[in-house]
Design brief:
Blueprint lengths: L1 H21 L36 H45 L3 H33 L5 H34 L2 H11 L11 H36 L9 E4 L7 E5 L8 E10 L6 E7 L7 E5 L4 E5 L5 E4 L9 E8 L4 E6 L2 E6 L13 E4 L32 E9 L5 H7 L20 E5 L3 E3 L1
Antiparallel strand pairs: 1-12, 1-14, 2-11, 2-13, 3-8, 3-12, 4-5, 4-11, 5-6, 6-7, 8-9, 9-10
Length: about 450
């Protein structure tokens, strides 16, 4: 038996040896030491200077960063609110259809349940958003973001009020239309359909039709609510600033130390111009300065002023005056423009896109001098004089300004052109819901020309 197995064992052994020889890998392994990061004993090289360094951010860079962050936060909040509305509307429609299919003609219970659920969901989401906004306000370190957060909180309060109003409407709809047989018959007389169980040759078809009518009524009410919410969102996007403006200048009180200096990039020497701006005065006095330009010889070359309820526009001094009465009101936005041409000597004053006053023969042949001082919210009566008691070193800071003439309120969209704008152009700038802030002046451009707030004046958004 052993001799019979021996040839087979020899064959198997031979096959294993052949396979081993066939698949043997010829790998040479080198155990020599390799040094890829050898350190020599030479002199240590001197470290090179930093290849690049980031410059310090200026106050304008910081301001623009704050604006971008605020814009991003608001866009996220608006998108969140819009998503809530879309999701809740779609969810409500699905629930209503399921209720109709399940309960047949008893649409009153379906309307009541759907209305309550919509109200609870919308109110819960809006309260959650308000709480997040309040926490963000508490943790925010930037002072300018407080005003914007208050505006957004007010808009969300409007949304919450709209949700509660819609819940009340749905409850009234359920009570008046579906809770009593008389109400059901009244609806039938209006629509021409009959509710299930009230008789008729085809009660099943009539029941389906009445359910469709009930769904249409609810959807119409929801569509009305959606339109109101969209209107609130559009108002929120404007952020209480007119004409699509993103920022505004805030003058918190009347003070000789609060003003904004404008530093144009071009010379202001011209024989015609148009000055436009949006203003919202807090209070009005006998004389409030909005826009003032002058030089050493004449500090009153251009002035745009507010009175008790009037608007005044002067070129070259008060002897050339254009006045419109009964125009301005405290606490309301108003768009003002003053235009003048030296060739015709015609000065005109515009309020909210309408020409309210004009006077011929105003400084005819006169040319505005260059190298003057331009400021908003104050007039420099003694231009370019340096006060020894001035703490800031600004020319005329203490001597030239008067607290009785200071402007208190908000200002935005300040632009100046080296021509007289047409009536159509001024009307487009004065649209409350338009995009007038996107139009830039050729001499002073809002958002482009450097404007330096002083005292308590500041940019808000």
């Amino acid at each position: 038996m052993f001799l019979w197995r021996l040839p087979q064992a020899v064959c198997v052994l031979s096959a294993c040896v052949c396979l081993a020889l066939a698949y043997e890998d010829n790998i040479e392994v080198s155990y020599d030491d390799t040094y890829y990061n050898e350190i020599t004993d030479g002199d240590t090289p001197e470290p090179t200077s930093t290849p690049c360094s980031s410059p310090d951010l200026t106050k304008w860079d910081k301001l623009f960063s704050m604006l971008e962050n605020s814009q991003m936060r608001e866009n996220m909040l608006l998108q969140y609110a819009d998503d809530i509305i879309k999701v809740e509307m779609g969810s409500l429609r699905g629930e209503m259809m399921r209720f109709v299919a399940q309960y047949g003609g008893s649409c009153g219970a379906a309307v009541e349940t759907a209305g309550r659920r919509m109200a609870l969901q919308l109110e819960g989401r809006l309260r959650e958003t308000l709480e997040r906004l309040k926490l963000r306000d508490l943790s925010s370190a930037a002072g300018n973001s407080v005003g914007n957060s208050d505006h957004l909180e007010a808009q969300l309060q409007h949304l919450l009020s709209a949700a509660r109003t819609q819940a009340s409407r749905l409850a009234k709809l359920e009570t008046s239309c579906f809770s009593s047989p008389e109400a059901g018959m009244e609806m039938n007389s209006k629509t021409g359909f009959q509710l299930p169980g009230s008789g008729g040759a085809e009660p099943q078809a009539q029941g389906v039709t009445s359910r469709e009518v009930a769904v249409d009524v609810v959807l119409a009410a929801l569509e009305e609510t959606r339109m109101k919410l969209e209107e609130v969102q559009r108002s929120s996007r404007q952020r209480y600033l007119p004409a699509g403006c993103e920022t505004a200048l805030l003058f918190p009180m009347r003070s000789r130390r609060i003003y904004t200096a404008v530093i144009p990039d071009v010379h202001l020497s011209t024989s015609s111009f148009t000055v436009c701006m949006w203003v919202k005065p807090t209070i009005l006095s006998n004389k409030t300065v909005l826009f003032s330009y002058g030089n050493r010889r004449n500090p009153y070359e251009i002035q745009l002023l507010l009175g008790q309820t009037s608007v005044l526009f002067t070129i070259g001094g008060e002897s050339h005056l254009v006045e419109a009465k009964g125009v301005a009101n405290p606490g309301q936005w108003i768009h003002l423009c003053g235009a003048w041409s030296s060739q015709q000597g015609l000065a005109s004053l515009w309020a909210d896109g309408k020409k309210v006053a004009f006077t011929p023969g105003v400084a005819e042949g006169h040319v505005l001098p260059d190298e003057g001082s331009l400021q908003l919210g104050q007039e420099r009566r003694s231009c370019c004089s340096v006060s020894s008691s001035s703490r800031t070193g600004m020319a005329g800071f203490e001597e030239g300004f008067d607290a009785k003439l200071a402007f208190a309120g908000k200002m935005t969209g300040v632009n100046m052109w080296d021509k007289v704008l047409s009536e159509e152009e001024i009307s487009q700038l004065a649209l409350q819901e338009g995009q007038g802030c996107e139009q830039r002046g050729s001499m002073v451009a809002w958002g482009v020309t450097e404007m330096v707030p002083h005292g308590g004046a500041q940019f808000i958004y």
